Amino acid sequence: MQESAEHPLWAETRFEKMSPSPTLDPLQRRIIGALQVDPRAPWRKIARALGEAERTVARHGTELLATNRVTVAGIENRQAAIITSFTCTPGASRMACEAVAQRPDTSYAYLTTGPTDVVTELHYDGDPTDILINQLPATPGTSHYATYPVLKYFKTIRGWRAGVLADEEMAALASPYGDDQPYWDHDGEVDETDRAIIAALKEDGRASLESMARRVGLSESSVSRRLDWLLRHTRVTIRALVEPSLMGLPVEAQLWVQTTPQSVEAIGHQLAGLPQVRYCAAIAGDFQLLVDVTLPNQRALYDFLSNKAWNAGATRIRSAVVVRARKRGGRLFDIS
């Protein structure tokens, strides 16, 4: 997946053929859109916001979750994160992607076009020396790697919306914990009970208070209070995870953006406000921003890259298409 010579503004991108995904009907997409706004919303709340019968919404929603076309999962927010890109030996990119995807500390693992074959985001607490010096170099199938510490998030996938709901519908679904949580508050101690609740949410972000109460051996009211504290203090974030292609957005790309230090904040906020952007982070290294975008086709990607509304301050943009996502939001996805 080697990249051609770069345009001074963005790299020439080679597109790999992607397997077709099953389609969803408009109501199914709207239910997923509702879960993006409030992942733990009861079916009754979603039905009321969408103007649909509760029984119909519950039937479709339950089926979407059961078939994993959408997954609601919690992800534990650690103190820091590092983006790592790998160049692989010939024929070994899938093995390398699988290796990083299986790590419990990675949130995503992508196979991409361009000069690097695999990109992942790794979250950690404390000193990352062992990760950087011993663990990452030992990733099987890789010949080179580069690391980019995350300095700031402008947008996470918790804030991404697929564009299937009207503004008034999203307002009716608004989560009490906000649209996105790019800033994490680590004040206060997390005990074993909290860790057990976080583990339950990682398995099922819509787990009921009753099931979590049984798991941790506390009353539902106690679990409700602990859950509220964990969410308000951003120790865990709950996200609806879906392949963008199922929402009519089959082209996904990562944009590595170079700019001047004084332009990072303005460009980051501009990008975060665009509906095409799923994720935007300021990073340390030879690139200053990493951006994930999803679009309906390759021409739309070209138009996005050419948009001077956000790229005027960029000195270079390297684009790489996401060929497969093995992991999203801390959960493994089937790429067979």
Task: Report the average pLDDT across residues.
Answer: 91
Strand content: 25-35%
Number of separate strands: 11
Count of alpha and pi helical runs:
12
Question: Low-confidence spans: pLDDT under 50, at least 5 residues?
Answer: 1-21
Distance between the termini: 19 Å
CA radius of gyration: 20 Å
- What is the overall silhouette? globular
CATH topology of the domain at 26-73 and 161-171: Arc Repressor Mutant, subunit A
The percent range for helix content is 25-40%
Order of helices and strands: HHHEEHEEHEHHHHEEHEEHHEE
Helix/strand class: alpha+beta
Q: Architecture of the domain at 26-73 and 161-171 in CATH?
A: Orthogonal Bundle
Question: Can you summarize the main beta sheet?
Answer: 8 strands, antiparallel, barrel
CATH class of the domain at 26-73 and 161-171, anyone?
Mainly Alpha
Report on the structure:
InterPro entries: ArsR-like_HTH (IPR011991), AsnC-type_HTH_dom (IPR000485), Dimeric_a/b-barrel (IPR011008), Tscrpt_reg_AsnC-like (IPR019888), Tscrpt_reg_AsnC/Lrp_C (IPR019887), WH-like_DNA-bd_sf (IPR036388), WH_DNA-bd_sf (IPR036390). This is Putative transcription regulator. This protein has 336 residues and is of the alpha+beta class. The protein is built from 12 helices and 11 strands. The chain has helices at residues 26-37, 43-50, 54-66, 93-101, 129-135, 167-173, 192-203, 209-216, 220-232, 264-272, 298-305, 308-311, and strands spanning 71-76, 80-88, 106-112, 118-124, 142-155, 236-241, 251-259, 277-283, 289-295, 314-328, 331-332. The protein starts with 25 loop residues before the first helix and ends with a strand. Residues 1-21 have low confidence and may be disordered.
